[in-house]
Amino acid sequence: MTLAESRSLFRSLVWICHVTLVVAIASWLLVLPLHRPWPIVLFALLIAPLLIATRGMYADRRYTYQWLSLVLVICIGAGIVEVVASQRTASAAVVVMLAALAELLILPTLIRNAPSSRRE
Fold first, then answer.
1. CB atoms near residue 108 (< 10 Å)
2. How many domains is the chain partitioned into structurally?
């Protein structure tokens, strides 16, 4: 497998994980009770950076992959907190955690092989 083929495979895997993560977060928030405003704020804090990252992912920008890895750590942390705090929505939080973790494990390969954004 050449470098270009492996890079294409990893990009496809990241896209699959990314879409899965966005759908999992949306479904997780549907399970949460909506009588308080914090689920909407949580939704905005978790989904907005992921949606903003899609443009940079499409353009294959190294910088986007770098800051997306930081956002994924936050998603994993939120999933862990929800699993520990509530057994009622733990299954949805586990899906969020696994999707974010899978994407986070693939990103270092893309960051390492991404073209440099510096002008030389």
1. 13
2. 1
Which residue did the predictor score with more confidence, 79 or 72? 72
- DSSP letter (8 states) at residue 120: -
Predicted local confidence at residue 32, as pLDDT: 67
Q: How far apart are CA 61 and CA 49, in angstroms?
A: 15
Q: What is the pLDDT of residues 4-46, one digit of tens each?
A: 787 788 888 888 888 888 888 887 777 766 666 776 777 777 7
Q: Is there a contact between 54 and 18 (Cβ–Cβ < 8 Å)? A: yes
How would you label 52-81 residue by residue, b for 16+ Cβ within 10 Å and e otherwise? ebeebbeeebbebbbebbebbeebbebbee
- Whether 58 is in a domain gets the answer yes
Structural Rg of the chain based on CA atoms? 16
Asked, for residue 68, whether it belongs to a domain, the answer is yes
Residue keyed to tokens 């930081």: 70
pTM: 0.77
Answer yes or no: is 18 within a domain. yes
Structural domain range at position 39: 3-113
